[in-house]
């Protein structure tokens, strides 16, 4: 009989309640300052990260090897036979390859590592869909076969007050970022089919960027039923206002406000607001 475990990395930004609900194990990215290091979601919160950004912009690195090893060994001791691992885009992080190399040391586990080709909360949305399948006693092979379809139906969009954090982390060219900020352009970023960030749309100024986010959301809702998450990175009131503005749409099956985690926030900075949409069709 299959006993299937589910693992994702901390870029997923899932709340602890959601992790607990679907029994999802978390691989924490490291958040590294000049004189100290933290484990995302374990020893640092996004609120703490935002307060530290006033003095220093840290870097992020792969999930801690020792911590990840303990998770796999605990699964074996608990009698798990199969494990599904869902990661941030392999073109944005080495997490996929790192966990693949680690899993090779545990032949007693039959594993599948899925590259979401996306970044941030969409990783979490894909993971929760896998969690629902496990809860419904779907077998390992069938879940694997459904993951690509789930990925295609999952979409993420995010906009920022400043591009300096993306520039610092090398996620956007310094010249392009400087030009955008000079013109007060607020790009709305998404992930392409290769898992790389790109400018899905542009708006002039903060207010118009949020209007554009709403328009993007409506373009999906006009086509059919969707699960929607509003993503908040130290942009509390604007995120709440957006949720209130759209929550009564008849094609929203469920909507919630979610917090952008510390690892993601390193690259987005405060004042980030985004969407994750899952097409339920």
Number of helices: 11
Tell how many strands the DSSP assignment holds.
13
CATH topology tier name of the largest domain: Hypothetical Protein Tm841, Chain: A,domain 3
Mean pLDDT: 92
Characterize the biggest β-sheet.
4 strands, parallel
Distance from N terminus to C terminus (CA atoms, Å) equals 31 Å
Instruction: Name the helicity range.
Output: 25-40%
InterPro entries: DegV, DegV_C, DegV_domain_contain
GO molecular function, one term: lipid binding
Function: May bind long-chain fatty acids, such as palmitate, and may play a role in lipid transport or fatty acid metabolism.
Protein name: EDD domain protein, DegV family
Note down, in words, how this protein is organized.
Helix 5 (121-135) packs antiparallel against helix 6 (140-152). The chain is of the alpha/beta class. Residues 173-180 have low confidence and may be disordered. The two termini are 31 Å apart. Helices cover 40% and strands 27% of the residues. The strands form 4 sheets. A 4-stranded parallel β-sheet has the order 2-1-6-7, sandwiched between helices. A 4-stranded mixed β-sheet has the order 8-13-11-12, sandwiched between helices. It is built from 11 helices and 13 strands. It folds into 2 domains: 4-28 and 63-152, 3-Layer(aba) Sandwich (Rossmann fold); 154-279, Hypothetical Protein Tm841, Chain: A,domain 3, CATH 3.30.1180.
């Amino acid at each position: 009989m299959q006993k299937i475990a589910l693992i994702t990395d901390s870029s997923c930004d899932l709340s602890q309640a959601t992790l607990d609900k679907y029994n999802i194990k978390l691989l924490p990215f490291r958040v590294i300052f000049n004189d100290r290091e933290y484990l995302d979601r374990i020893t640092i919160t996004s609120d703490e990260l935002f307060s530290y950004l006033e003095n220093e912009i840290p870097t992020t690195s792969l999930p801690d090897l020792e911590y990840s090893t303990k998770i796999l060994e605990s699964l074996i001791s608990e009698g798990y036979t199969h494990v599904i691992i869902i990661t941030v885009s392999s073109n944005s992080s080495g997490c996929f390859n790192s966990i693949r190399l680690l899993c090779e040391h545990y032949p007693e586990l039959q594993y599948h590592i899925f590259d979401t080709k996306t970044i941030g909360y969409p990783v979490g949305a894909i993971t929760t869909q896998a969690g629902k399948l496990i809860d419904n006693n779907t077998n390992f092979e069938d879940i694997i076969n459904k993951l690509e379809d789930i990925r295609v139906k999952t979409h993420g969009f995010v906009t920022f007050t400043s591009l300096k954090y993306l520039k610092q982390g090398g996620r956007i060219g310094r010249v392009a970022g400087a030009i955008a900020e000079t013109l007060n352009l607020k790009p709305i970023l998404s992930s392409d089919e290769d898992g790389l960030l790109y400018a899905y749309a542009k708006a002039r100024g903060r207010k118009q960027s949020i209007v554009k986010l709403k328009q993007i959301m409506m373009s999906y809702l006009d086509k059919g039923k969707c699960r929607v998450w509003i993503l908040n990175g130290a942009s509390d009131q604007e995120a709440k206002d957006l949720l209130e503005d759209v929550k009564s749409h008849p094609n929203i099956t469920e909507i919630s406000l979610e917090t952008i985690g510390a690892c993601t926030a390193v690259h987005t900075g405060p004042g980030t607001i985004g969407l994750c949409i899952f097409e339920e069709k």
